[in-house]
Amino acid sequence: MSGDGSVPAKGGWSTLTDKLVRLGRPSGTEPGFVNAPVSRGSTVLYESMDAMRARSAQRYEHELIYGAMGGPTQALLEEAIAAIEGGRHTQVVSSGLAACTTPLLAFLGAGGHCLMPDSVYGPTRRFCDSMLRRLGIETTYYDPMIGEAALDALMRPTTQVLFAESPGSHSFEVQDVGMLARVAHGHGAKLILDNTWGIHVFQPFEHGVDVSIQALTKYPAGHADVVLGAITVVDQADWVVLRDSVVQLGQYAGPDECWLTLRGLRTMGVRLERQSRSAMTVALWLQARPEVARVLHPALSGSPGHEFWLRDFTGSASLFGVVFRREFTAAAVEDMVAALGVFGLGASWGGYESLVLPTTGTVSRTALAQGIRDPSMSGPALRVHVGLESPDELIADLEGGLEVLRAASA
Ligand SMILES: *Cc1c(COP(=O)(O)O)cnc(C)c1O
């Protein structure tokens, strides 16, 4: 591997923490509490019809108009996320999945065409194959490692959205986002990126992304107690299109969720610093084990798209994949998972706690005839999320698990 991939070279974790201490705090001149209150409300009272008309014209600003259009707690969170993503406007929505589907509905229309990476988050794929198809929008899946000429050939006059997710869910391909932006913009399409893994360590708008998505459920909330998403744009015209769709769809985020996420954000820098470093320790340990065919961690050489990670990222998250040798069965991996005591079994990630999730068999692939591209990726696999526990404890747990894996396969 090239250096300790968990430590950002520029824009490091302490820079992030310095920002997170200040972002999204109330700016009142009156002395008061450090933090903003949880502001709950539906109706906003106006002094006159004139005041009501004037405020209603501000629906593209973060003005308090009506509860469903967003309140003051949400506005502070939006300000913080926009700063972390390096964008101009953020819209917080009810879940990370809503943050994926809402811009698709905003920027696609009937008869339109969407390009999706084969490695995309499963529920986003389902939305394309079900809801978008029903609305007369066609989706083509592309190899996330596709080259420029091949991608260019997939673009149609009707292509309105090129979607990316880097690294990909479960298989962790890091995409060449700069190239994707060139191709998308060359054909008048928008580039939408699910940047959940890359929070802070990938600055989407510096690489030509038009719309960046965050599942705030993951590291920003950070405590496995909130479901929330964010959509960020840098261009004013894109913001008008997005915001109109959000209002029409009635996308709303509860103030308690927004407040909890603001609270989680304060420690995100120190959590990420520890978790990404521990994840690298665990990933390197796994890579040296005889049961393991390969570790899919963007900061490790040999992981798909590692060269783009080196070029574009300033650090890494604490979520990666491990593929076992093909002599081990999926059933034996399930026995291993059952034997783990520190790692929990569960969906989602980005919380303080470590998790594993068996992935082979649940991953859909259609762009590549042979399924997952590479034979060394075709064994049973686990997605590993490293939390705040010590790497020693995590490694001891995995060591016990691997013993069970071997025994179950003997
Ligand atoms: C979890 C996740 C989502 C969805 O977020 P939810 O808040 O769980 O709906 C979207 N994209 C990626 C990459 C995710 O990991």
Kindly report the name of the CATH homologous superfamily of the largest domain. Answer: Type I PLP-dependent aspartate aminotransferase-like (Major domain)
- Radius of gyration (Å): 22 Å
Shape: globular
Q: Compute the average pLDDT.
A: 93
Which structural class matches the secondary elements? alpha/beta
Q: Order of SSEs, N→C?
A: HHHEHEHEHEHEEEHHHEHEHEEEH
Helix content: 25-40%
List of distinct ligands in this structure: pyridoxal-5'-phosphate
N/C terminus separation: 32 Å
What is the total tally of β strands? 12
| Tally of individual domains | 2
Low-confidence segments, ≥5 residues, pLDDT <50? none
The CATH topology of the largest domain turns out to be: Aspartate Aminotransferase, domain 2
Residue share in β-strands: 5-15%
What is the count of DSSP helices, taking H or I runs of 4+ residues? 13
How would you characterize the largest beta sheet?
7 strands, mixed
Structure explained in plain terms:
It catalyses: L,L-cystathionine + H2O = L-homocysteine + pyruvate + NH4(+). Its EC number is 4.4.1.8. This protein has 410 residues and is α/β, with parallel strands linked by helices. The protein folds into 2 domains: 17-265, Aspartate Aminotransferase, domain 2, CATH 3.40.640.10; 268-409, Aspartate Aminotransferase, domain 1. The chain has helices at 13-22, 49-56, 72-85, 96-107, 122-134, 148-154, 177-186, 236-249, 255-265, 268-287, 306-312, 330-339, 391-409, and strands at 89-93, 113-117, 138-142, 159-165, 190-194, 211-215, 229-233, 292-296, 319-324, 344-345, 355-358, 381-385. Strands 1-7-6-5-4-2-3 form a 7-stranded mixed β-sheet, with helices on both faces. Helix 5 links the parallel strand 2 and strand 3. The longest helix is centred in the C-terminal third of the chain and has 20 residues, at 268-287. It is globular and about 80 Å long. The two termini are 32 Å apart. The protein binds pyridoxal-5'-phosphate.
